Amino acid sequence: MIKVSGIAASAGIAIAKAFILEHPDYSVEKRQINDVITEIAKFDTALGKSKAELEAIKEHTLQELGEKKAEIFASHLLILNDPELINPVKIKIESELVNAEFALNETASQFIEMFENMKSAYLQERAADMRDVTKRVLNHLLGIESTNPSDISEEVIVLAEDLTPSDTAQLNRNYVKGFATNIGGRTSHSAIMARSLEIPAVVGTKNILIQAKHGDLIIVDGLNGHVVVNPSDEVVAEYRSKQKQYDVQRAEWRKLRDQPTITMDGVHVELAANIGTPNDITGVLENGGEGVGLYRTEFLYMGRDKLPSEDIQYNAYKTVLEKMEGKPVVVRTLDIGGDKELPYLSLPKEMNPFLGFRAIRLCLDRKDIFRTQLRALLRASIYGNLRIMFPMIATLGEFREAKAILLEEKDKLITEGVTVSDSIQLGIMVEIPSTAVMADQFAKEVDFFSIGTNDLIQYTMAADRMNENVSYLYQPYNPAILRLIKMVIDAAHREGRWVGMCGEMAGDETAIPLLIGLGLDEFSMSATSILPARSQITKLSRAKMQQVAAQALELQTAEEVVELVQGGLIYLWL
Amino acid sequence: MITMQQNFKITDEDGIHARPATALVNTASKFIGAESFAEANGKKVTLKSILGVLSLGLAQGDIISIIVEGEGAAEALQALTDVMVNEGLGEVHD
């Protein structure tokens, strides 16, 4: 039994067998062969196995995700039956006396190159299908255990170096009970995704792939950040009982589902959820969310090969607004670029993507993309309580330009005879220090602020949150951050505006008392954090937390702040 | 031997993509006695190959000829025409 520690990224306990998700080495050597018949038979066997796999995946996808998603596998099957691929491979084996994997690789490469050089972006993307199919056959020729996340068909714990957004999008939550990765932190994509899927996860273990192998029994303890490999029966029993306790606690929290979030001294704050797709609304309502504080619209743009049309977007926004039944929904306009790429936009690679051409900067340049999104939002606005928020605003000029475009589109729609809501609040993300510092000026023009702490912290501390060597600088409790937050809240309240927070900090139990004290109005977090947060806030008094926050602002280090909240000074305010 | 031909103008904004190409190839493959081809931009490919069809690199506005030879050519051409039109790929172009 081995115990590995990492960062608790998503709460809960999961016990299942390991599924190693890795991107193996597909490099192929050229070998001379003597026995053509055996080599061709080897190729045919690999083809047969690959097709059988694809049939199974196609069937599985059809059952689980529907016809549309299954179509791609029908195309893959057709490629493996394609004489234009199969015959040249066999001819090559025969005439050049080379090994099957080499012949396949050479032939497939020609098709991959052909697709890559096509004019249409759509057909360029087909190179990925060709690679995928080729890898599937190579798996059998090279004896590699295939590890495609959509192949998973039994209960597993996924172990990986890291999970990309596309890997996580393919994970089937019926089978994937939890995951653990070598790299990443609480705010990495994989961690955020785990919380929205409500599956336990531990990230940043550094060596889980060394410690565990495919099929090992794994316990993921997403409460304490531990992963146990091949536990003894006693340990399994111990964790099963912890799992039960956690379930009991969750049941307690569930009782708070339909309760408002009110402090002991009667102050109401709003607990909202961060979502990525309309499907997440179910989780928001199950967890008693009082609204959506951040709808990350970039997921609409990801996993497809061209920009989503106005109608596709309109339908998504309308669905979210309708399902929330009049509760506020803050939609963040497209925050793409930087580390979140869209292949079909073919944006140039940047040295410094977090400081680069992204979010509102990109939207103000590619106004066609921006206008389409705004039109879709405005059209959907009559179906609920829509609030629009611009990301990465650094200057008032950017906000004014974005707002002007919004108003232009609104006027156009009204001229076209489309009904648009008149009560759409317009706000900005505060995640760039310049904007936090100028909050008093912004507050005169915006309806609300939402503090994006993940970026605000990394920009304030000048520390890439994905870089483990500087992760110690990711300090939400640093008095510098608390002071910036205070500036923003005070500035907003002076102008009668409300302030939300949609970064990870909003759901953090150490930060919550301070944020209550600083006067935060809305807390937006992963849906699963809402009930624990509500349980905590109903036991706090705003007046007392104001004193605690005032003390924290005068402290010198993040550690002192943590000690103040968690440690010995607690008696001062309970 | 009978040879039949029908021209189409591609109307889909993606050109010919994987799903309709799959339908075309599956349909062409059903008619064992007939050989079906697609010709566009000076290139002719068998309709029994999805890679061949995709390799035409068809874009919106391109003209594609579907040519069918052999037994059941008329039926095969009709079935392929149905796929072209029903999948929203293209319209008959004379």
TrEMBL record, chain A:
Its cofactor is Mg(2+). The active site is at residues 189, 502. Residues 251-540 form the PEP-utilising enzyme C-terminal domain. It is an enzyme of class 2 (transferase). One of its GO terms (cellular component) is cytoplasm. Residues 153-225 form the PEP-utilising enzyme mobile domain. Phosphoenolpyruvate binds at residues 296, 332, 454-455, 465. The keyword Metal-binding applies. Transmembrane segments: none annotated. Residues 5-126 form the Phosphotransferase system enzyme I N-terminal domain. It is found in: Cytoplasm. Pfam families: PEP-utilisers_N (PF05524), PEP-utilizers (PF00391), PEP-utilizers_C (PF02896). Keywords: Cytoplasm, Kinase, Magnesium, Metal-binding, Phosphotransferase system, Sugar transport, Transferase, Transport. InterPro entries: PEP-util_enz_mobile_dom, PEP-utilizing_PTS_enzyme, PEP_util_AS, PEP_util_C, PEP_util_CS, Phosphohistidine_dom_sf, PTS_EI, PTS_EI-like. The keyword Magnesium applies. It comes from the Bacteria. Mg(2+) binds at residues 431, 455. GO terms for biological process: phosphoenolpyruvate-dependent sugar phosphotransferase system. It catalyses: L-histidyl-[protein] + phosphoenolpyruvate = N(pros)-phospho-L-histidyl-[protein] + pyruvate. PROSITE patterns: PEP_ENZYMES_2, PEP_ENZYMES_PHOS_SITE. SUPFAM superfamilies: Enzyme I of the PEP:sugar phosphotransferase system HPr-binding (sub)domain, Phosphoenolpyruvate/pyruvate domain, Phosphohistidine domain. Belongs to the PEP-utilizing enzyme family. General (non sugar-specific) component of the phosphoenolpyruvate-dependent sugar phosphotransferase system (sugar PTS). This major carbohydrate active-transport system catalyzes the phosphorylation of incoming sugar substrates concomitantly with their translocation across the cell membrane. Enzyme I transfers the phosphoryl group from phosphoenolpyruvate (PEP) to the phosphoryl carrier protein (HPr). NCBIfam families: PTS_I_fam. This is Phosphoenolpyruvate-protein phosphotransferase. It comes from Paenibacillus algorifonticola.
TrEMBL record, chain B:
Coiled coil: none annotated. Keywords: Cytoplasm, Phosphotransferase system, Sugar transport, Transport. One of its GO terms (biological process) is phosphoenolpyruvate-dependent sugar phosphotransferase system. Residues 3-92 form the HPr domain. InterPro entries: HPr, HPr-like, HPr-like_sf, PTS_HPr_His_P_site, PTS_HPr_Ser_P_site. It comes from the Bacteria. Transmembrane segments: none annotated. It is found in: Cytoplasm. One of its GO terms (cellular component) is cytoplasm. Its main location: cytoplasm. CDD domains: PTS-HPr_like (cd00367). General (non sugar-specific) component of the phosphoenolpyruvate-dependent sugar phosphotransferase system (sugar PTS). This major carbohydrate active-transport system catalyzes the phosphorylation of incoming sugar substrates concomitantly with their translocation across the cell membrane. The phosphoryl group from phosphoenolpyruvate (PEP) is transferred to the phosphoryl carrier protein HPr by enzyme I. Phospho-HPr then transfers it to the PTS EIIA domain. This is Phosphocarrier protein HPr. It comes from Paenibacillus algorifonticola.
